Amino acid sequence: MYGSETKPVEFVGSSYEDLRRFPKAVRRVLGLELRKVQVGEPPADFKPMPIVGKGVYELRVRLDGAWWLMYVAKFEDAV
Questions:
Q1: Is residue 10 part of a domain?
Q2: pTM, two decimal places
Q3: H or E element at residue 17
Q4: pLDDT of the residue at 77
Q5: Which of 2, 30, 52, 69 could pair with 40 as two cysteines, CB 3.0-4.6 Å apart?
Q6: Confidence at residue 2, expressed as pLDDT on a 0 to 100 scale
Q7: Strand segments (E) across the chain
Q8: Is 31 among the domain residues?
Q9: How far is 44 from 60, CA to CA, in rounded Å?
Q10: Measured distance CA(13)–CA(6) in Å, rounded
C-alpha cells in the first residue's frame, strides 16, 4: 500500500477522450475504482493483463453491458 499518498492518473494517447465517450454512470464507477488504485487499494473487479504488458491490469465494470479500462499501477509517480 502507498499509505495516504495519492498517485495522479496520467492518460496516454487518446485514452482520456475514449473514456469520455463512456456513459456517465460507467465513468463514475470507473472513476471510483481508479481512485482505489491511486491510494493503493485493489479495485472491485480486475485482472492482470501480462499479454498487454508487465504491470498492466484490466478494470472491469458491468453496468449497462460490460466496460473495460486498462491501467498500469507499477509506476511510483502515477497510475
A1: no
A2: 0.83
A3: helix 15-20
A4: 87
A5: 2
A6: 46
A7: 46-48, 56-62, 66-72
A8: yes
A9: 8
A10: 23
- CB–CB of 39/8 below 8 Å? no
Structurally, the chain folds into a number of domains equal to 1
Provide the 8-state DSSP code for 3. T
Q: Round to whole Å and give the CA distance between 60 and 30.
A: 8
pLDDT (tens digit per residue) in 11-61 = 999 999 999 999 999 999 999 999 999 998 999 999 999 999 988 999 999
pLDDT tier at 4, thresholds 50, 70, 90: low
Q: Is residue 60 part of a domain?
A: yes
Alpha-carbon torsion, ordered 54, 22, 37, 13, to 10 deg: 50
Q: What is the residue range of 44's domain?
A: 15-72
C-alpha cell at 62: 458491468
Residue 42 within any structural domain of the chain: yes
Query: Cα angle vertex 26, ends 25, 31, to 5°?
Result: 100
